[in-house]
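For consistency, the fold was encoded as tokens, as this record shows:
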Amino acid sequence: MTYTRESAQDLAVTILLYIAERPDLIGRFLESSGLQPQDLRQAAGNPDIALHVLDYLLEDDARVLDAAADLNIKPGDLMAARTALAGPGSYGWEV
């Protein structure tokens, strides 16, 4: 799928909700982001958090595969959305 910046941000919000529903993921996400649980609702509307959400998921292949299966998307869509937000090559790979 091809993502625009807006559709990538929408996917990131969906992923943030996915992460928030999973105790095994949310604790590590909060730790890595510096957010507090009460900050999540406000952060979901912040475009800057979208990239961090996608990066957190993309750090681990198992997270990518599990999220893609649960959200009924292709695993590659996660990197496509990240690229839409930050640009080609921003993850250290050329696209």
